[in-house]
Amino acid sequence: MKKYSQILELVRDANPLVHQITNYVTVNDCANMTICFGAAPVMSHAPQDVIDLDTAASALVLNIGTLDENQIEGMLAAGETASKRGIPIVLDPVGAGATPYRTQTAERFIDELSVTVVKGNAGEIGVLAGVSAEVRGVDSAGISGDAKEAAQRLARECGVTVVMSGAEDIITDGVRTLGVRNGVPLMGSISGTGCMANACVAAACCVAETVDACASAMAVLGIAGEKAACASSGPGTFKPAFFDAVYALTAEQFEAEAKIIEY
Amino acid sequence: MKKYSQILELVRDANPLVHQITNYVTVNDCANMTICFGAAPVMSHAPQDVIDLDTAASALVLNIGTLDENQIEGMLAAGETASKRGIPIVLDPVGAGATPYRTQTAERFIDELSVTVVKGNAGEIGVLAGVSAEVRGVDSAGISGDAKEAAQRLARECGVTVVMSGAEDIITDGVRTLGVRNGVPLMGSISGTGCMANACVAAACCVAETVDACASAMAVLGIAGEKAACASSGPGTFKPAFFDAVYALTAEQFEAEAKIIEY
Amino acid sequence: MKKYSQILELVRDANPLVHQITNYVTVNDCANMTICFGAAPVMSHAPQDVIDLDTAASALVLNIGTLDENQIEGMLAAGETASKRGIPIVLDPVGAGATPYRTQTAERFIDELSVTVVKGNAGEIGVLAGVSAEVRGVDSAGISGDAKEAAQRLARECGVTVVMSGAEDIITDGVRTLGVRNGVPLMGSISGTGCMANACVAAACCVAETVDACASAMAVLGIAGEKAACASSGPGTFKPAFFDAVYALTAEQFEAEAKIIEY
User: Fold this and answer.
1) Who contacts B163 (Cβ-Cβ below 8 Å, separation ≥6)?
2) Is B246 left (phi over 0), alpha (psi -120 to 50) or beta?
3) Which chains touch A (3 or more CB pairs under 8 A)?
4) Of the candidates B227, B228, B210, which has an alpha carbon nearest to the alpha carbon of residue B171?
5) For all residues of chain A together, what is the average pLDDT?
6) Which residues of chain A lie closer than 8 angstroms to C190, CB-CB?
7) A141: number of CA atoms within 13 Å, CB side?
8) Which residues of A fall within a CB distance of 8 Å from C239?
């Protein structure tokens, strides 16, 4: 597990600047989680602003959770700058499959930008992979057939690394496939766990190979979630404890508790 | 109280999808409270997105706390779809009376959409009822005359159920009037208690008669507030405890502690 | 210290309405901190709304953390109304120096509006003062030469009071210069400490002379941060404790613990 635990330490040393164009629901949690993970957040969406920001940023997160036309314009401007500079772009296709607007925008970003990672739940990944899947609001409502194969297909067809979150997180670039078996159900009882993961995945991708980076970030959050669940009495007190646990997690604890398997 | 406690259990069983177009100040709290109450939140405001979302949603919340022209456009598009489908629409006229822009927009929504519930403080309800009332920022600064009568008048004139929040919450459809006497002052020392209530009211309206549903939701929050006040040492620690208390509340506790009276 | 502790009590007595046009990242924290400090928050950005709001507001905060063209329009409309009425305007030039868009907008507001206080980190203040300074995302990345002199220069050249946040906060109107040496590093490990300070500074400026008011507000937050650090186990639990500490701070505690020096 040393390969993975080192990534957390590399992030903390490098303190990469992660530019995030994200939904207004969980944006505060994303900013705070970015700091707890050891990186630096900056949020901005205006086309006039993002091009200059992305000249300095180390990674870009695009999260379509509360999409509108203004945001798409800013995301494309930021994404093009990030694509030219070759920095990691993490796309979270929140609600793809729930509305055509979200599905088509996610597909457009994958087509037009150099997306590095697509991170979503089973329903969202299934919809983008073209298999039969269902999304209700922003939650997965199921996927037909093997979810892992859908993730691998999307990865291969689009040349991206896919992170499919769930009880077991699946990370695949179409060739190599990892599973992360950390985490607790309480992580699904707060809004924004997936959004926060985007920032951590993006930060990790700044310092390590993409599949390894994604697995490391997802394991950090899963382990922290396990610790926070012990320190809290419901979703409300879980969230502050979750931030604390990510902030305090050591490489030694990571190595002792990470459950990352290679398929 | 069994009639009311059952509503909480029905929400948890049905897990209704509550689409919320709301202010960016308390939107995260609204999403988390929706989950704690047993429903599923989805936030979205773009006209391109909301029409498709509202084909799947079970209820719609319109909260004008940080209104602008784009949001009005999205609210009207969502509201028209929701009106056609006959799902509950909860309107929170935040700051009506503080500015003409807010007052007129709230009145326009009541006119043009099939609004089910109007939920506000005494000042906001008084202004919409046409009695002498005052709103300072987003807080009630008083209402002249009998607040209950103002709520009943608005309910009758507009064909809506009115929820007037306060030390005693008043719920009325113009015929039947209930009072909910749960809650603590600390609920007024955090931003967003009223906004969170909208989501719970909307979820409850998906599974029960409207007046009963509103009273049940307001009582759940009031009881949870009482419990959270005991478990916290100020507004900051109150909020996480408030989420925990709603999440953990049982039907038995509800029945033992709810103070719902029929006028 | 009585001069400064009284300001907190005056705010709590007056409960001034503080209109804030601010970024969507930390807006919820700003609303809650405003309440904990003893003032009343109202957030609104639409030109149609802000002019009427600012007829009632006691102070205005302009925070450019997530700037776009719509927001600039609203900020100018609100700022002009506030300027005419002579109420305090607090400008936080978040990220000035990181992008030309932010730098130029901050400069435009200082030029066109009657800005009372400019509050930023050393990098932002340095950039606006025209000295060599660097801003990375929204964080100061250093300033060349004496930071205090840069703050004084900006204050004199623009006729504003400058609050430069840091391990020691510097407050100066170009003539009188104060230092506030309260606070803990954990305040920098959450997103939004600076944003929350804007609201408190604005509220304090409603009831006292500007330099004194700024020092008092910064000391309140610093002392509260020290208390919250003792009551928390990381950035996640620090934030709720921070709100509690501001809410509970007494004038006696302030006098015992404030470290305000006059240069």
Assistant:
1) B117, B118, B119, B120, B169, B170, B171, B197, B201, B214, B218
2) alpha
3) B, C
4) B210
5) 97
6) 32, 35
7) 14
8) 32, 240
- Which among C135, C211, C207, C134 is positioned nearest to C169, based on CA atoms? C211
Helix (H) / strand (E) containing C161: strand C161-165
CA distance C176 to chain B (A): 34
Q: Residue A99 and residue B28: Cβ atoms within 8 Å?
A: no
Q: Kindly list the residues from chain A whose CB atom is less than 8 angstroms away from the CB atom of residue B70.
A: 68, 70
- pTM of the full structure: 0.98
The model's pLDDT over C235-255, given as tens digits with 9 standing for 90+, comes to 999 999 999 999 999 999 999
Sign of dihedral through CA atoms B117, B123, B127, B131? positive
C145 confidence band (pLDDT: 50, 70, 90): confident
CA distances from A211 to A119, A214, A216 (A): 12, 5, 9
A37: distance to nearest CA of chain C, Å?
A: 11
Inter-chain touch B98–C52, beta carbons under 8 Å? yes
Q: What is the DSSP string of C185-235?
A: GGGGGSTTHHHHHHHHHHHHHTTS-HHHHHHHHHHHHHHHHHHHHHT-SSH
CB C202, CB C17: distance < 8 Å: no
The answer to whether the beta carbons of residues C98 and C136 sit under 8 Å apart is yes
Cβ-contact A122, A167 below 8 angstroms: no
Q: What is residue B223's three-state secondary structure?
A: helix
Closest CB to A28 among C25, C95, C102: C25
CA distances in angstroms from B83 to B78, B80, B128, B213, listed in the order given: 8, 5, 21, 19
User: Residues C89, C90, C96, CA angle at the centre, nearest 5°?
Assistant: 130
Find, among A102, A149, A111, A105, the residue nearest to A129 by Cα. Answer: A149
Can you give the pLDDT of all 263 residues of chain A as single tens digits?
A: 899 999 999 999 999 999 999 999 999 999 999 999 999 999 999 999 999 998 899 999 999 999 999 999 999 999 999 999 999 999 999 999 999 999 999 999 999 999 999 999 999 999 999 998 889 999 998 898 899 999 999 999 999 999 999 999 999 999 999 999 999 999 999 999 999 999 999 999 999 999 999 999 999 999 999 999 999 999 999 999 999 999 999 999 999 999 999 99
Report the distance separating Cα C244 and Cα C108, nearest Å: 37
Contact B122, B133 (CB under 8 A): yes
- For chain C, the chains sharing at least 3 beta-carbon pairs closer than 8 angstroms are A, B
- Please, what's the b/e burial string for C8-32 (b: 16 or more CB within 10 A of its CB; e: otherwise)? bebbeeebbbbbbbbbbbbbbbbbb
Provide the percentage of residues in chain A whose pLDDT is more than 70.
100
User: What per-residue confidence (pLDDT) applies to A145?
Assistant: 87
Residue with tokens 């036309």: A69
AA letter at A28? N
Q: Which positions in chain C touch B28 (Cβ < 8 Å)?
A: 28
**Least CA distance to B48: which residue of chain A?**
A101
CB A62 within 8 A of CB A38: no
A37 exposure class (CB count in 10 Å sphere: 0-12, 13-18, 19+):
buried
Site from B23, B25, B32 to mutate, A interface, most A CB atoms within 10 angstroms: B32
On whether the CB atoms of residues C192 and C200 are closer than 8 A, the answer is: no
Interface test with C, best of B33, B237, B239 (most C CBs within 10 A): B237
B31 contacts in chain A (CB < 8 Å): 25-26, 191-192
B202-231 pLDDT, tens digit each? 999 999 999 999 999 999 999 999 999 999
pLDDT of residue A54: 86
